[in-house]
Amino acid sequence: MKQPHIVAIGGTLRPQSATGNMLEAALAVAAEKGARTTLMTGDAIAFPNFEPEDALSNDQIRHFLDVLRSADGLIIGSPGYHGSLSGLVKNALDHVELMRRDDRVYFDGMPVGLIATAGGWQAAVSTLQALRTIVHALRGWPTPIGIAANTGQPGDAIAACDSQLRLMVGQILYFLDRARA
Fold this sequence. Notes:
Blueprint: E1 5-10, H1 18-32, E2 36-41, H2 59-70, E3 73-81, E4 84-85, H3 87-94, E5 111-118, H4 121-137, E6 141-142, E7 147-150, H5 157-160, H6 162-180
Parallel strand pairs: 1-2, 1-3, 3-5, 5-6, 5-7
Antiparallel strand pairs: 3-4
């Protein structure tokens, strides 16, 4: 059986963002379960605003799309900014439009885990819902478990979400196993 490639995209431009750390933790679980992993956060997704006519002239955008094309499953994470996802993550997802003519259009049939972090439950949950809506529009299959992490609470948000991260990654890998069967 082919080793699955799980790609995580999102986070912020801060080197140690809560969202980036959660994405890293999710990929560590995937690697522990035998997946090949790629993290694209911060500068790796800091593209100019989406402009379809010019985007493919940018090497960084072409690399991003090539990585997505090689993915078997995705994990998308965003901080909650004003009740929705960040502009950085939204702009990266807007560039997926350039995959509209691919054999696998957008994220068609791909399992997608979702992580939303925010300094309160309301922003985390509304961001998670916005991510689900976008993934549906891009023909992806959001996992039943999505993670809304309240980073405003005391303690380690990653440790608090460990069992959810494991369940979400397990759902991605289970979906891939079932799809291959």
